[in-house]
Amino acid sequence: MAKIVLSRYLTPTIDAALSNTMRLMFCVCAALAFTACGKKAAPTPPAVDVSAVTVSPQAATVTEDYVAQTEATNTVEIRPRVGGVLEKQVPIEGKRLKVGELLFVIDRQPYIAALAQAKAALAQTEAALVQSRRDLGRAKSLSEIDAVSQQELDAAVAKNDANLASVDANRAMIRTAELNLSYTMITSPIDGVMGRAQLRLGGLVTANSSLLTTLYQTDRMYINFSISEQRMLTVQRELGRAASQDSKAAPPFRIFLADGSEYKQSPRLNFIDPAVDQRTGTLAIRLQVDNPQHLLHAGQFARVQVAAAQLTDAIVLPQRAILDLQGKNYVWIIDAEHKAQQRDVRMGPRIGNDWQVQEGLKAGDVVIVDGVQQLKPGMPVNVTPAPVEVATTPAAAPNAPAPKPGAPPAPPRTAPKTGDGAAGSGT
Hints:
Blueprint: H1 2-38, E1 48-54, E2 58-78, E3 84-89, E4 96-97, E5 102-106, H2 109-144, H3 150-183, E6 185-187, E7 192-194, E8 204-205, E9 213-228, H4 229-239, E10 253-256, E11 268-272, E12 282-290, E13 301-318, E14 323-325, E15 328-334, E16 340-351, E17 354-359, E18 366-370, E19 381-385
C-alpha cells in the first residue's frame, strides 16, 4: 500500500523532469540548426592579374663591372721657363691646338736688353782678343832675339788665352740670352685641348714654377680601373699563367658612361701594373680607347664591364621577380590549377637586369614577374605574358600567333650575348 502511494507521488515528478530534458534538447537542436542554416560558404577570392614567364634554360654571359675613370693619354702642364709679366694670351680656353701654336707671351723687353748686353760684351772681348794676339806676336818676335824675358812672353800667352776664353763665354751668354728671349713666346708642345688659364694678363709669372694652363691630348683616352687581388688570382688559375698586357686574345671590354649609355668604341688592354697596391690590395689595369668625336673627357667616371663566365643552360629571371624574406629568396609560381604558390630559390650572379637562379626552379615552371604585391598562397590568377624588353631582345615575328586566353605565357626570348669567353681568357 505504501509503494502504491509513493509511486503515485513520484510519477508526475519523473514525467516533469523528462519533459524539461526533452525541451532543452529540442532548443539546442533548434539553435544548432538555425546557426547552421545561417552560415554561408566563404566566397572565392577574385583572380589577380599577373604577368609571368615560363622558365627556359638558355645561354648567358656572366659579367663583372668595375668603377673606372678616364685619363688623357698625354697631359702637359704649361709652366714658363723665364719669369716676367704675362703680356698676351693667344688662344681662348678650351680651344684645340696644334704642335707649335703660340699660347702665351711674356714681356720680352728685359730679355731683348739682356741679349744686347751680351752682344756688347762679346764685341768687347773680341777686341781685347785682337789686341792680345798682336802683343803675343810681338813678344814671340822679340823673344827670338832675347829682347824680352821668358816671363813677359808667358804673360802675353796667358793674356791671349784668357781673352780667347772670354770670347767663348760671351758667345755662350749670347746663346743663353737668345734662349731666354725665345722662352718668352710659349708654344704648344702637343696636339691637344687647352684647359683653363690659371693666370690673367698682367700677372707676374715665376720661372719653372707658375702654372699657366694644362693641355690634354684626347684623340685617344685611357680608362683606369682596378681589380681585387682575389679576382686576379682567379684569372691566373683559369689561365694557368700570369695575365699579360701583350696578349692577342684579351677578353672583350665594354665601357658604360655615367648615364648608363654604352660607349661605342671598343677599348683595348694597354697596361697591367706589375705590383699590387699594398694600401688597397688591388691591381691597376688600364685600357686605351679611340676618341674620334671627343665625347670622352679627362676625369670622367665610367663603368668597365668584362665577361667573367659563359653559362650554357642558365635559368635567368628578371630581378623584379625575385623577392626577399629574412635573407631568403623566393618567387611566386603558378601551379597546374592556375593558383599562385611560393617557391624558395637560391640565387647566383646578376646578369644585367636579370638574375640567375641556381636552385629551386626547373624548365617549364611558370614564374610571376609583375603583380606579386597582392598575392597569397593558393590565390587564383589571370596570367598574361610578361613584357619583353625591346632593348635587349629581338623584335617579335610579325606573324606570331597571339596566346590563347588563360594559357601559360610563352618562354622568354633569349637575349643576345654580351660577350664571349671567360674574363681574362687571353690576358
